Amino acid sequence: MSNCRVLSIQSHVVSGYVGNKSVTFPLQLLGFEVDAINSVQFSNHTGYPCFKGQVLEAAQLGELYEGLKANDLNNYTHLLTGYIGCESFLRKVKDVILDLKKKNPNLVYVCDPVMGDNGEMYVAKELLPIYQQEIIPLADVITPNQFEAEMLSGVTIDSAETAKEAMETLHKMGAKTVIVSSSDLGEPDILVGFGSSVANGNTSAIKVEMTRIPMYFTGSGDLFTAMILVWLHRHPDNLQVSVQYYTSFYSLQHLLHLVC
Ligand SMILES: Nc1ncnc2c1ncn2[C@@H]1O[C@H](COP(=O)(O)OP(=O)(O)O)[C@@H](O)[C@H]1O
Ligand code: PXP
C-alpha cells in the first residue's frame, strides 16, 4: 500500500463513467486513498442530447474545503483536477491549490484542463484565460488533449514539431510536465501522444503511437490523467513508461470493455 492521498476535484454523473466516477475506483485499486469533490452533479455527460443537474460555485467549494481544513483532513500527496463547470469555481480551485501546497510543499498537482474536444468547447469559454494565467502556472503535470493543447498554447498541432512547440509554450506558462493525451496528425488509424518534462533545465520528450479505434469515447481522458498520476508517482523519471502504461494496457482494456 502506498501512503498516497489524492484530492480529486472533477465532475460527478449519475449515469455513466466520467470525472470522479471514472477515476475513483481505478485509483483505489492501485492503492491510492481518494477524496472526491464534485465540481458538478449531472444526470449524464455533456455529450448526450441533453443533461440536467447542478454546477457548484466558488462558495460551495470553499465551504467543503474549510470543513476539511477545520478537521485537519486536508493532508494530501496529490491534487487532481478535471471538469470544472464555472469560472468562480475554477478561481477558487486556485486558492485550494495554494493552500494545499502551503501545507505540503511536495504536493503534486496534476491538472487535466478539460475544455473540449475535436474543435468544440464543452465548458464556458471564460475558463480558458483562467487556466492559462492562474492554474497552469501552478501545475506539476498537465494532460490536455490536442484541442485543449492548441487552445491553451495558441499553436495548431499538425506534426511532431508543432506538438513540441505547443508543449514548450505550456512549459513557459509554468507546467513542469506536459502530456498531450492524443493527437490526430492525419493518419487515419493512428493517434499520437506526446510528453515533455523539464527538470533542472533539461527537457526530455517522448512520442507514443496508438492504434485508433474508430469510435469516440468520453471519459477516457479522465482515466488517462488518473493513470498518469499513478505511473509518474511510481516512475517519476520515466515519462515513457507512464504514458505507455495507460495507452498500451489500460486504454485497450477500458475501451474494449466499453465497446463490448
Ligand atoms: N478512439 C480511440 N482509439 C484508441 N485509443 C483512444 C481513443 N480515444 C481515446 N483513447 C485513449 O484514451 C486516451 C485519452 O483520450 P483522449 O481522447 O486523448 O482524451 P480526452 O478524452 O480528454 O479527449 C488516449 O491517450 C488513448 O490512449
Ligand atoms: C461531465 C463531464 N465530465 C468530464 C468530461 C470529460 O471527459 P473526457 O475524459 O472524455 O475528456 C466530460 C466530457 O463530456 C463531461 O461531460
Automatic annotation (TrEMBL):
Give all residue intervals belonging to the Pyridoxamine kinase/Phosphomethylpyrimidine kinase domain: 96-234
E.C. no: 2.7.1.35
Catalytically driven reaction(s)? pyridoxal + ATP = pyridoxal 5'-phosphate + ADP + H(+); pyridoxine + ATP = pyridoxine 5'-phosphate + ADP + H(+); pyridoxamine + ATP = pyridoxamine 5'-phosphate + ADP + H(+)
Q: Which InterPro entries does the UniProt record give?
A: PM/HMP-P_kinase-1, PyrdxlKinase, Ribokinase-like
The GO annotation for biological process reads: pyridoxal 5'-phosphate salvage
Keywords in alphabetical order, please.
ATP-binding, Kinase, Nucleotide-binding, Transferase
Q: Cite the SUPFAM superfamilies for this sequence.
A: Ribokinase-like
Q: Name any one Pfam family assigned in the record.
A: Phos_pyr_kin
CDD domains (alphabetical): pyridoxal_pyridoxamine_kinase
Q: What class of enzyme is it?
A: transferase
Question: Mind telling me which NCBIfam families this protein's record contains?
Answer: pyridox_kin
What's this protein's family per the entry?
Belongs to the pyridoxine kinase family.
Name used for this protein in its record: Pyridoxal kinase
